[in-house]
Write a structure and sequence with these properties.
By secondary structure, the chain is of the alpha+beta class. 26% of the residues lie in helices and 27% in strands. Strands 2-3-4-7-6 form a five-stranded mixed beta barrel. A two-stranded antiparallel sheet has the order 5-9. A hairpin with a 2-residue loop joins β3 and β4. The protein is globular, with a radius of gyration of 15 Å. The chain starts with a helix and ends with a helix.
């Protein structure tokens, strides 16, 4: 079943110079269920519920067990929820590794029909920092550039949390 599910999710090109735009002709391969926090969502892939960890981004903690809510954590969660309302059609794209140590699927998330690259938008607007775990580096350069711009502009967590 897992292999079948992973086959529904397209794979990235694994080049750190990939453009920060959506791949051509995106098709829905998941449906948004709920936002867990700023960098984790629940989706349906077919009839299977999956938890997705957004690749390349790290938002401040807002729901981590035995941890305090971090500066801008609630705002990041609300922003992500606003980008991805329940029922939103999504295109998930994998990188090299399919899952993290917690069993979550790792993915780049595109919102349909406008093809917004959600991972990148979180960084651009200052709701997330970059978090790169090789070999999952397809969009790392784009994410770093977006984070630098957000920091220079004092957007989001950069202005609210003292850098």
């Amino acid at each position: 079943m897992i292999l079948g599910l992973l086959g529904l999710i397209s794979c990235g090109s694994n080049t750190s110079t990939a453009p920060a735009t959506a791949p051509a002709a995106l098709e829905a391969n998941a449906t948004m269920v709920r936002t867990v926090d700023g960098d984790t969502i629940d989706v349906l892939i077919g009839d299977t519920a999956e938890r997705i960890r957004l690749l390349g981004v790290d938002t401040p903690e807002s729901v981590k067990r035995d941890s305090p809510v971090e500066c801008f954590g609630q705002e990041a969660s609300k922003f992500a929820a606003g980008l991805l309302p329940e029922g939103t059609a999504l295109h998930l794209e994998r990188d090299v590794e399919a899952r993290d140590a917690y069993g979550r699927l790792l993915a780049y998330v595109y919102r349909l029909p406008d093809a917004m690259f959600v991972n990148l938008e979180l960084i651009r607007q200052g709701y997330a920092q970059t978090l790169t775990f090789p070999p999952n580096v397809t969009h790392a350069d784009d994410f770093v550039a977006a984070a630098r711009q957000a920091e220079r502009a004092n957007l989001g967590l950069w202005g609210a949390c003292g850098g």
